[in-house]
Amino acid sequence: MSKPSDLVQGTLDMLILKILALQPLNGWAISQRLKQISSDVLGVSDGSLYPALHKLEHRGWIRAHWKSSENNRRAKFYSLTQLGRKQLEKETANWNRVSAAISGIVRLKEA
Amino acid sequence: MNVEQWFYSLPLRWRSFFHPHQADQEVKEELHAHLERQISEYIAQGMSPEEARYSAMRAMGGLAQIEQQCRDARGGSVVQDFARDLRYGFRQLRRSPGFSALAVLCLTLGIGANAAVFSWLEGILFRPYPAVAHQERLFAVAATAPGESRPDLLSWPDFLDLRRNCTLCEDSFVSKITGSTLNNGDHAEIITGSIVSANYFDALGVHPILGRGFQAGEDVGNDSHPVVVISHQMWRKRFKGDQEIIGKTQRLNNVLHTIIGVAPEGFYGTFVGRAMQFWIPVSMQETFSSGGYKLEDRGARWIESYVRLKPGVSRAQAQQQISAIAARLQKDYPATNRGRGIRLWALWQTPFNHAGELLPTLEVMVAVVAFVLLIACANVGNLLLVRSFVRRHEISVRLAIGASRGRLLKQLLTEGLILSALGTAGGFLMAYWCRHLLVMLLPVREGEAMYLPGAMDARVMAMGAGVCLLVTLIVGMIPVFQIRHLDLNGPLKADSYGVVGARGRTWMRSGLVVFQVSLSFILLVGAALLLESLEKIRSTSPGFTTTRVVTTGVSLMAAGYDVPRAKAFQDELTDRLSALPGVESAAFARVTPLGYVMYSSTPVVVDGYQPSPDEQPEVEYNQVSPTYFTTLGIPFFSGREFTRSDDENAPPVAIVNRTMVERYWRGQDPIGRRLQVKGRWARVVGVVADSTYESIGETRKPFFYVPLRQDFVREPDLYICTTQPLHSILTAVVREVHALDANLALYEMITLREQVNRSTSPQLVAVTLVSTLGGLALLLAAVGLYGVMSYAVAQSTRELGLRMALGADAASLLRLVIWRGLRLTAGGVLFGTVAALALTRLLRQLLYNVSPHDPMVFGLALAVMTATAIFACLLPGWRASRTDPARVLRG
To answer: Which helix (H) or strand (E) element contains residue B308?
Structure first.
C-alpha cells in the first residue's frame, strides 16, 4: 500500500468533501467516483480511502449512517455536514489561491 | 479542534471508547461490502471468482492494517492504550506483590511526609483561619521601634488613627490575646480569649449562630460594656448547648459579663496556635490586662491588629500609605511616637502568635521531606531497575516483534503512575492522620488548649498530585534509561555471569544508592545538630535555679478578690508557705521567665545618662515580691532584696540587672542612683546577675525589677523553693490555700525545669520531626543498599562459586560483600559531607551554641551510617558465604 504524498493527502480530503457535496454516497461509490474524476492520476488506493473517511467523520465534516444500497444490502452512507460545507469552501478557496500562485510561477519559468 | 467539531465527534468518541467492538465490527462490515462489490465487478469483467477475490484483496491492501488505521483515525485509541497499559501494569504489580508493596510503602512514606508538611504550612501559615473570608488580603500590623529589630505593638489611639486614615484598607480590627480563669471544683481552668474591636466579627465575615457580634460603640469607654461572645466549644461544653444562653451572665475576671453571642463552629479566633474561648470588646481592657486603663494612652502599646486590604491593592501600596500615616503620627505626637513606624506583615509572619515560632522549623521541614521523597524515589527506582532487568526478556521480545520504543515508554510510565498514585493515596491518608501532630509535640500548660491544625484542602491536594506526577516521571524514567541501551540480541541469550565487584550495568543502581546514602547522611547530620543544640539549651543555666523551685498560681481574680484582699492574701500565704517544713522561701512575681506572658516595658530616664537624640530608652521589667531573688537563686552583685517595707507607701525602689548597669551607668555601682519608671523616680537598691527572660538563646539585655506592691497585680505567679518533691509540696500548698479560702483553686504546678523545657518546645518539635524523618531516611537507604547488595549477590553466584572452589572461605566472601557495600556508603558519605557542609547553615536559626560544621556531629553521623551499611550488607553477605560451589558450577 503506497502512502500518498502530503499534498495528495490534503487533496484527498478536499476531493472527498467535494464528491459528497453533490450527494450522499457509500464508500464503494466514493472510490469509483474518485477514480473517475482523477483518472487514476492521484493513485488513491481503496486502502487509504476508509481511514480518510473515518478521520473526516471524526472532524465533524461528514456524517455516516447505515441504509440499504441499490442491491438491497446494508451500506454505510456518508453525507456532508454544515461544518464540512464550510470546510470545503475554505479549502477550495485556499486551493484556488495556491494553484493560481503555482501556475503563475510555472508560467513564469516557461517564459 | 473547535467546539463545533466536538459536538459532532463526541458521540463517535463515546462509542469508540465504550463500544469499541461495535465500531470495529462496522469497519469490518464496511470493508467487506467494498470487497464484495469489487469482486462482483471483476467477475463481471470476466475473471474467475478466485482470481477476482485475489485481485480485489490486492487492490485493497492489508485489511488488518486498514482496520487499525481506521481505529487510529477514530481517536480514542490513546485512551484505550492507556486502559490496556493500566490493566497490564496492575497485572505486573500483582505478579510481584512483595515488590509492589515495598514500592508503594516507600512512596506512601515519602509522599505522606510531604503532604503532611504541606498541610501544616497551609493550615498554620497560609490559611490559618478557615472560617474567615478572603484571608489572602489579611495582613498583621505591628509597630517598629527605633533601635529595635523586633516588631513592637501599637497603642489604641495609634490604631484608631490608622483605621481612620488608611483608605486602602477595607477593614482594620484588633485581636489581642488575653485569658481568664474558670473555677472547676478544686482546680482552676485557664481559658484563652481575645480583646477585640467592636467591628471584629463583621470585619472577618463571621456571624454568630446565636445572638449577635459586637456593636459599634461597644469598644468605647472604660469597663463600660461587659459583654462577651463565647466560642461554640465553650457553649457546648460549659453551657451544654443551652439555646436560651443569650442574655445570661458569666463571671470573667470578677466582672459579670452578659453573653450576647455564640460563635459558629469551626471559628477559633485569629491567633495561630490557640483556640479562643471568648471575645470581649476593647472597652473591657482594664479588667483583662494589667497596667491600668490604656485606651487613651498613646504610650501604652498592647494592640495586636490586622487589616484587610481592598481588592486589588498591593501590600507595597498599602505599606506606603501606612508609613505615611506613621510619619504623621511621629510629627503630631513626638513624645510617644518619635522614631516609630508601622509595618504590615504577611499572616504567616505575624509577629505576635505562634506562627513565627514554628516558621524556621517548618522551613527546614520542607527541605527535609523533599529529601525523604527523593530517597523514596531512589528506592523505588532501584526496585524498578531490578525488575526491568528481570523483565528484559519480555521487553526485548516486545521490541523484537515491533513495539515502538515510545509505546513501551508509555507503558513503563503507566506502571510508574500506578505506583505513585497508590503511594499518593496512602500518603494523603497518612497526612490526614498527621495533620494535628504538631499540637501533640508541643507541651503546654494544663487547660490551655493549643490549636495547630493542618489543612487538607484543595491546594494541598493539588501539591500532592504535583508531587505524584513528579514521582511518576522520576520513577518511570529510571528503567527507561536501561531500555535505551537494551541490545536486542543480548538479553535473548543466557545470563547470570555477573561479578560482585563489576561496574558495568550496575552503575545506575549503585549511583542511586550513593545518592540515597548522601541524602540520608545530610539528614543524619541535621538531626544530630538539632539534638546537640537541644541538649545544650537544656543544660545551659537559665540564670536561675531550676531544680528545687516550683511555680503555680492561685485564682484570686475568678474568686472575686479586690486589691486589698489580694494583698493580704499574698502576704499571709507567703508566711504560711515559708513556715512549711522543707520550704526555704516563697515569693510572687507577675511574669514567670520563659513563659508566654509578656513583660511590662516602659520608657526610662536614667539619672546621669544622656541618650542620643534619636534614642528613646525603653526597658522591660517585672513586678516581684520580697525574697523573689532568693527563691529563684538569682545572685546579687550589690545592694539588697526588696522587703515587706518596700510597699505602696514607701518611696519607689528598683533592682537592676548587670547589663543595665553596663549600658546606662557605664559599669559604675548604681546603688542610690535614680531611674524614672512610668514618670516616677525610683531609687536603685540592688544589682542582680543577668538571667534569661524570654528565651534561652536571647541576647543579653537591660532589665529591672520593681516591688510587686508598688505596681500591683492581683494574680501573680507563685514560686516556692523547696527540698520536697513536687507531689508532696503540691498537697501542702493546696492545704494552705484552702485553709485561707476554700473557694480558691490552684493552677497547674510545675518545676522551673519543666518551665524551661516547655519554652524550648519549638526546638523539641524540630528535633523530633527531623530525627524521625532522618531515621526513616536511614531505613530507606538501608533498604536500598540491602537491595543492591542482595541483587549483586544473586546475579553473581557463578563468580562466588568459582571463588569458593578456588579456596575462598565463607568469611572472605562475607568481607567481599560488606567491603563493596561500604565502598558505596563511603561514596555517599563523601557527597553527603560536602552537601551537608553547605546546607546545615540553613539550620543556624534553630541552633543554639552549636556550629553547623561541628566535627563531633559529622563523626557521629558517619558512625551511624557505617553501622547501618554493615548491617544492611550482613544478610546478602551471609547468603554469598553460603554459596554451594558444586551446585553453582555444575548448573
So the answer is: strand B305-309
Contact between A28 and A54 under an 8 Å Cβ cutoff? The reply is: no
Retrieve residue B804's grid coordinates: 569458593
Same domain, B190 and B282: yes
Which residues of chain A lie closer than 8 angstroms to B14, CB-CB? none
Answer whether residue B146 is part of any domain: no
Between chains, do A28 and B1 touch, taking CB under 8 Å as contact?
no
For residue A5, the model assigns a pLDDT of 44
Is B270 found in the same domain as B363? no
Residue B618 CA: distances (Å) to CA of B299, B578, B601, B602, B664: 11, 36, 7, 5, 12
Give the residue, B430 or B481, on which the prediction is more confident: B430
d(CA B177, CA B281): 12
Rounded to whole angstroms, the Cα distance separating B367 from B770 reads 10
Q: CB contact, 8 Å: B102 with chain A? A: no
Residues in A whose CB is inside 8 Å of some CB of B read 1, 26-28, 31, 45-48, 50-52, 54-55, 57-60, 63, 73-76, 81, 83
Q: Are residues B809 and B879 in the same domain?
A: yes
The arrangement of secondary structure in A6-110, i.e. its CATH architecture, is Orthogonal Bundle (1.10)
CB B695 within 8 A of CB B594: yes
Are both B320 and B362 inside the same structural domain? no
Out of B311-320, B329-338, B349-358, B434-443, give the one with best mean pLDDT. B311-320
Q: What is the pLDDT of residues B749-777, one digit of tens each?
A: 899 998 888 888 778 888 888 888 888 88
Q: Where are the domains of chain A?
A: 6-110
Q: Is B58 on the interface with A (CB under 8 A)?
A: no
B4 interfaces chain A, CB cutoff of 8 Å: yes
The verdict on residue B591 lying in a domain is: yes
Q: What are phi and psi of B686, to 5 degrees?
A: -160, 155
User: Hey, what's the cell of B722?
Assistant: 523547696
**Number of domains, chain B:** 4
Q: How far is B56 from chain A (nearest CA, A)?
A: 10
| Residue B205: partners with Cβ closer than 8 Å, 6 or more residues away | B132, B133, B134
A60 and B70 within 8 Å at the Cβ level: the answer is no
Q: For residue B132, tell me if it sits in a domain.
A: no
Helix and strand counts by DSSP (H, E) for chain A = 4, 3
Give the residue from B15, B34, B41, B72 with the most A CB atoms within 10 Å of its CB, the best one to mutate: B34
* pLDDT tens digits along B385-395: 777 766 777 77
> Which residues of chain A lie closer than 8 angstroms to B44, CB-CB?
none
The enclosing H or E element of B300 equals none
Select the residue from B17, B60, B71 to test the A interface by mutation, using most A Cβ atoms within 10 A.
B60
Residues B234 and B373 in one domain: no
Q: What is the pLDDT of residue A6?
A: 46
Q: What are the φ and ψ backbone dihedral angles of B454, each rounded to 5 degrees?
A: -85, 160
| Same domain, yes or no: B333 and B450 | no
| Domain's final residue, options B51, B75, B99 | B75
Q: Domain boundary residue among B12, B47, B75?
A: B75
Q: Is residue B99 part of a domain?
A: no
Residues B177 and B318 in one domain: yes
- Find the residue in A nearest to B31 (Cα): A50
* Complex ipTM more than 0.90, yes or no: no
pLDDT in tens, B770-818: 888 888 888 888 888 888 888 788 878 888 888 888 888 888 888 888 8
Dihedrals phi, psi of B302, to nearest 5 degrees: -145, 0
What residues of chain A lie within 8 A of the CB of B61, using their CB? 1, 45-48
**Mean pLDDT score across all residues of chain B:** 85
Domain that holds residue B565: 560-744
Task: Kindly list the distances between the CA atom of residue B452 and the CA atoms of B114, B286, B442, B761, in Å, as whole numbers in the listed order.
Answer: 17, 29, 10, 14
CB B214 within 8 A of CB B196: yes
